[in-house]
Amino acid sequence: MEGIVPAWGRILLGYTPALSIELTRECPLRCPGCYAYGADHLGGSVTLRELADLKGSALVDGVLNLVRRYKPVHVSLVGGEPLVRYRELSDILPTLAAWGVYTQVVTSAVRPIPLEWIDLRRLQVVVSIDGLQKEHDERRRPATYERILKHIEDRRITVHCTVTRQQVRWDGYLEAFIAFWSANPAVRRIWMSLYTPQIAEISAERLSASDRRTVLATLERLRDNYPKLEARTGMLDGFAEPPASPKECIFAKTTHCVSADLRSRVTPCQFGGNPDCQSCGCIASAALAAVGRHRLSGGLRVGAIFDASLMVGAAVRRVRESLSPPSEILEAPRLPDPNMS
Fold it and tell me: Is the pTM of this model over 0.85?
């Protein structure tokens, strides 16, 4: 529940409790199934690789201006690959820590995670790992196991794995993965998401309904043996019965997602495009769904408080912006993708 009470206060004042920023359009990886580079991620008129992102002081100032504007409790810095902008991050992260903002950097660990980040308060570094070494290295080269193990040494990280259909074809696969990373002293937590497809998507990554049930049963069985694995009952229930639409998803309703030009919105949630909510496997959505279902003494659902707060906050925001319209965020032109002919 950490951060939930301050989030209500921000909502009532008309601010967004969570901010997700695609820090850069650049990434040295070409991972199968990556939603960020999908053709419809930003609505179909432009792709992430066609946006002009920012660098240097323009990026630092742009991110901090967004945080000043939206006053979030939590900021996620994603990509692209955020470590492409590690110099700028080394200016951004200490400032956010000083402001008391909970910050998450999601990376492939394709390059070293700066040691000076370890002592920053309220910072969580999340490393995305796609299964055991053979499968991961094939999908995420050059961010191979060898590089990851080297780049997280003496750091503190959270491992995040998005489970795809390829990983459920072999009995014991998920346990082998969880056991391997649980034994690494740099790993503090292990998060497991389920692959979230777009509507009508046909791909090798997409889980069947039977696959999803198998994964959830496996996580429930393993959680007592691997304390670093976060797979509480409420969260698993959130995976089993995801919100039916973005309008019912607390994560989607409380997170403002911005792409690499710091202007373009990613909607209806961080996946963009037209996500299949019935097959959602987002760990943030599942976790907040669990919070929303929780009942306080007296029987009041936490989700009902969120909904009421959002209604009040929207009215407050309309009044505030009518009196003082928000200044324009830095505008960057769209550029052609240098990786495409």
Answer: yes
